[in-house]
Amino acid sequence: MIVFGLWFSGTQAATFAKGYFLYKADSVSAEDFAPKLQTTNAEVSLPEAAPNEDPQAPIEETKETEEAAQLPKDIQYPTDPQIGDLMGELIIPKLEASLPIIHGTDEDELEKGVGHYADSVLPGQSDNSVLSGHRDTVFRELGKVGKGDEFIVNTADGTFTYRVRQVRIVDEDDRTVIVPKPRATLTVSTCYPFDFVGYAPERYILVADLISSN
């Protein structure tokens, strides 16, 4: 039993067990973490994802991107979150999931929910807001989300809806994931392949444009 315990705590099995209570097959709720946050539902379309899109390709101008260009340039948060703070919740309508967003992307934060990369802007602000999560806990079904699907970020300072524009699969050390963007963008990242045993060598990236802000 002692040998098993040492093995279990040193493998991904322990991480999975901790994340099990954050994510269930049907849905996830952030209500226990932040009762004041209001859940928003949204209908989404389901176009096919394009994993090999060129990250430098020009943005296709659509009605949604035209609307995004007219959104306020910046959302002013009254205070900056501290590492480990609950920032809000990430709602993924395609998965019927609601996940707590924790400021920071170290293991302590990722064990509690989706991590917000501290050097990126806050959700709703212009530029690139980056979220990350474990593929075997909170983001274990993220591969079902593709181009045209939506993310909704609820915070105490507003509700921000993003639509996925691009799906990318990149190497683990690809720094283009966190580069600045010319408009309000949400970049959601997790390890890839999803069924890889051990430390996955790639990242599954969803790039989404802000389409509405309340």
Could you give a quick summary of the protein structure above?
It comes from Planococcus citreus. With 214 residues, the protein is α+β, with helices and mostly antiparallel strands.
Overview of the molecule:
The chain is α+β, with helices and mostly antiparallel strands and 214 residues long. It has a domain at 85-213: Sortase, Chain: A, CATH 2.40.260. Helix content is 13%, strand content 29%. It has 4 helices and 8 strands, in the order αααββαββββββ. The longest helix has 9 residues, at 12-20. The radius of gyration is 17 Å and the shape is globular. Mean pLDDT is 76; it is low at 3-70. Keywords: Hydrolase. One of its GO terms (molecular function) is hydrolase activity. It comes from Planococcus citreus.
Keywords:
214 residues; Sortase; alpha+beta; eight-stranded mixed beta barrel; 13% helix; 8 strands; 4 helices; Sortase A; Sortase, Chain: A
**What's the level 1 CATH class of the domain at 85-213?**
Mainly Beta
Adjacency order of strands in the biggest sheet: 1-2-3-4-7-8-6-5
Can you tell me the CATH architecture of the domain at 85-213? Beta Barrel
Q: What is the CATH homologous superfamily assignment of the domain at 85-213?
A: Sortase
Strand proportion: 25-35%
Report Rg.
17 Å
CATH fold annotation of the domain at 85-213: Sortase, Chain: A
Amino-to-carboxy terminus distance: 53 Å
Count of runs of 4 or more consecutive helical residues: 4
Helix content: 10-25%
The main β sheet shows up as: 8 strands, mixed, barrel
Element-by-element helix/strand order:
HHHEEHEEEEEE
Morphology = globular
